[in-house]
Amino acid sequence: MVVSTVVGVVVGGACMAGTMGFGTGACVAMGMAAAGLTYSALELAFGGSRGGDSDSGATITYERQANGTTVKNDDDELNKVIDDANQQTYEGIAELTAKLRSDLVRYDTKEDGATGDLWIEIYAPSKIYGFSAFPVQAKLYTKESNIPFNVIHLRSVEIYLQKENSSVPLWKRVWDYGTGSEGLNGQSVVYSTILKVPDDWVYQVQNAIQTGQVTRDLIEQIFSANTSTWEIFVKVDAYREVWQNDPQYTDQSSCTAQPNHKWDSNTSTCYVFVRNDDIKYTAYTTSAWRHVSMAHDIADLADGFYASLPVKFLNTEASTKWALYQEKYAGALSNFIILTFATPVHVIGSTADYKFYIVPNPGYFEPLNPSFNDDFRFVAVREYKDLSWTVADSIFGNLGTMSPDTPTQKLLTAHYTEDLSTLTYKVYGLAYFTITRDDNITIPLWLVVNPKVSVIPNTRTVLADNQIDQLVQFTDDGKLEASEINQTKAIAASLINGLQEKITAAEDLKKKADAEGNEKASLYAEKAIQAYQDAIEALNKITQTDAVQEYLNWLNVAKKLEQAGDFYMSAAEKALYGEYEQAELDAQKGDELSQLADEYKPHIDILTTAKSMLSKKILGIPLWALLAIVFVLVGAFVVWRKLL
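^ that's the sequence the OP posted. Answer follows.
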């Protein structure tokens, strides 16, 4: 009754002070909120039971409802994390492929040596990413002369690429016609070839593949390497025959009988050869900077799985599933797409399998059809606490013939050996390709891929499956007996002690981070402490209810929060030693699990609860009638005060 009176007064004041447009239920809801009534207080005040049974005035809702299987097997994580992640990745691949696909567009050009006899348009991809090879087309047009014998002969055509402030031609393709091609007079010719973005890294990557010496410096430099400024050049060496009218010969026989004479039967005109005029012509682009980034291009597949599943999945069937991982890769981004699948559990002291798919970007080199050859090396590197590296596992080989229709697959098993000096492991895929042009020139290309995997410590799980199974069994008959609640309290007390130990470890880690001024490590440790504390609060909730659904939901919340805390602890440990990249992945996984836990937390439906409250009777009088009386009394009291 005390609570009812407080609610009535607060609601009355709130509704009378504001607009009268609120419904009665809304007023009660406002009063409940204004009075600061908590989830616990509402249950105890209206219904007397913490069980959330049908007689209770408080209506409890759940965004997600846990069941015994969910709690024991964590299959909600598998569905949400792996299946959904794979679907998102397939969508991301489609977006990435669409972005990398590029039509040929005309580049802006300037000319040297222009005579008006010929001119060139240069076409290349609208976007060129990374250190890629790319198709180029040069369309050569010739001016038509009224004299049919004033034809142009091409001695040679060269297409090449040149870096800014350099005179050295790169990847030159030459068409050599010797003394001259067939004559052109108004006709056009298209020349197609493949050039490549200037690249200072290709042979370092090739050496790493051949020797297996994959160093931190090389990887860091590759993922921060910038492409340089360059332009495309087309150089033409040609000459034009110059003829003039010779009017003294008026018939074909007399004309052609003379040396260096030709007869035009269309105009019945005789022409005599005068000379060859040389043509030295160069066209070059001025707009390549619009089509390349001139920065460190990295393909980032941001959809999909990342980090690892929690430790509890280590020896389950889930650890054998394939998950399509988020990744970043550098190199010939426009030419190839590389995908990384891996088993989703990565724990120190265990093994994990990787599967890499590499496929040429479909249609990128059209209308050309170059052939590809390659070598690859996939490595797992052990990172020590001083951030030094050693190669732990490695495979080397050839991917074989590749085409857009037949992705090439290679496997790697990584052994995450445990020792006190090891901080974590990282996996990289390196590939070296050569494209063979139609002039048998080979152009080298490379890719380096880094899947967003994080290897986590083999931390003891407090809410282990055997403990959880026993708690879940109490709900098998759809109800919770008093004896089962007592057993729940005993088990929960033991689990809480284990979580307290984790809190102590997190507090020690935070002190160390604070002493070193490492803000990220301190933040992650603080998040671990909070997650473990929230897990303890959830365990306390299961000892205070006899409602099966509420019991299962709070138990699932506790499990998820312990897992979140473990990921935050891994993040703090890695950040403390300067491994921020994997620390961020672990922290992100902790956030994801915390959010999943929130979806299982019971919530009070305020409006429904308010309506339920109004239907109750006190001393045989409906609550709504009592509230109406309170409203009138409060109103009268306010008027009386004003009159005074």
